[in-house]
Design goal:
The structure is a homodimer of 182-residue chains. Chain A is of the alpha/beta class and 182 residues long. Chain A has a single domain, classed as Rossmann fold (3-Layer(aba) Sandwich). Chain A is built from 7 helices and 5 strands, in the order βαβααβαβααβα. A 5-stranded parallel β-sheet of chain A has the order 2-3-1-4-5, sandwiched between helices. In chain A, α1 packs across α7 and α3 packs parallel to α4. The longest helix of chain A has 20 residues. Chain A is globular. The model of chain A has no long low-confidence stretch (mean pLDDT 94). At the A-B interface, α3 of A face α3 of B.
Chain lengths: 182, 182
C-alpha cells in the first residue's frame, strides 16, 4: 500500500484587499510546518499572478479566470494529499462555488471569509491600493468601485479588527484538526 | 510523523507533435494506478491550455510561458509527494532546463525524449497539424517551420517507431523504480 496516508485539503481565504489574508496564511503555514511537519503551498494573489496568471487584468472575466486557475492548482495539490492555502480577494460567489465543487471532490475544502470591514482595510491600506482607488488612479477595486460578494456560508468568518494573528491562525487550523486531517 | 512517506516525481515527456507523448503518458498513468495504487496528475498540452494557459498563443514567448506554468504546477505536485506526468512539445532547451532545475529541487525529475522521427510523426498526423502546416494554414509548428531543440541528456529516449506502447510505458516506469520511488 503506497497510496499517501494523508488526506489533502485546501484552506481558501477570501476577503477585501488589506483584510489580512496573507498574514493569516503565513502564520498558518508556519504552524503547519512547525507543529505538524507538513509541507504547504501558498497560493496568494501575487504568487499566482506571477506563476500562472501573468498577463491577466483585473476585469471581471480575468478575475474569474484567475480564481479558476487557483482552484485548479489547489485541487491538484489536494488530490495528492497535500495542503494548499489560497489567499485571494475572489470577489465572485459563483467562481468561489466552482472552486469549492472542484476541490471538495478531491479532498477537504474550507472557505475562510476574512471579514475585516472596509473602513479598517482602508485604514491599513498596505499597498496604497485604496488611496489610489479614491484618487481614481486604479479601477475595479472590490469594495470601492467593484463588487465583493460576501460568502454566505463560509466554514469560518474572521474579523481581524479584534483578534491577534495567532488567535486567527489557530481558529483556521481548528478546521482540519476537527475533521481529523492533522 | 505525518509528513508524506512518498517522494514525489515528475515524468516530463517532450517531443514533436504526433510523437506519441500522450499515448505513453496515458499508459504509464494506468500502470501507476493499477500496479502501484498511485494517483497521477497528467498535464498534457490540451489540459494545460484549458486550465492554466487559456489565451496563450503558439509564439515563442507564449510557448515558454506555457512550459513555465507546467513546470510550476508539476513542481508543486512533486513537492507534496505526488506524481505528475507532463506531455508537451516543449521545444526550447532553456525552458526545459528551467523546469528541470525547479522540479529537481522539490523531488525527482525525469526527462523523456519521445524521439519519433518527423517523417513518422507526419505520417500519423493525428490532429492534421502537419497537413495544415504544409498547406500554410498554421504556423510555428516545431519540426516544420519552427525549431525543436533536441534534448542533449534526457533520462530516456524513446523512438516509438519500433516499440509497443506497453514496452515504452515499462521503460518509462523503470526510471522511478530504479531510484526506489515506487
Amino acid at each position: 500500500m503506497k497510496t499517501s496516508p494523508l488526506r489533502g485539503f485546501t484552506l481558501f481565504l477570501t476577503g477585501l484587499a488589506g483584510a489580512g489574508k496573507t498574514t493569516i496564511a503565513q502564520r498558518v503555514n508556519e504552524l503547519l510546518l512547525d507543529e505538524y511537519w507538513r509541507t504547504v503551498t501558498i497560493l496568494d494573489g501575487e504568487v499566482v499572478r506571477e506563476m500562472v496568471s501573468s498577463g491577466l487584468t483585473f476585469s471581471r472575466a480575468d478575475r474569474e479566470l484567475n480564481i479558476r486557475r487557483i482552484g485548479y492548482v489547489a485541487g491538484e495539490i489536494t488530490r495528492h494529499g497535500g495542503i494548499c492555502i489560497a489567499a485571494a480577494i475572489a470577489p465572485f460567489r459563483v467562481a468561489r462555488a466552482d472552486v469549492r465543487a472542484r476541490i471538495g471532490a478531491l479532498g477537504a475544502y474550507y472557505e475562510i471569509h476574512v471579514a475585516t470591514p472596509l473602513a479598517e482595510c482602508e485604514k491599513r491600506d498596505p499597498k496604497g491600493l485604496y488611496r489610489m482607488a479614491r484618487q481614481g488612479l486604479v479601477k475595479n477595486v472590490p469594495g470601492v468601485d467593484a463588487v465583493y460578494e460576501e460568502p454566505e456560508k463560509p466554514e469560518l468568518r474572521i474579523d481581524t479588527s479584534f483578534l491577534s494573528v495567532e488567535e486567527e491562525a489557530r481558529q483556521v487550523l481548528q478546521l482540519p484538526v476537527r475533521d481529523g486531517l492533522l
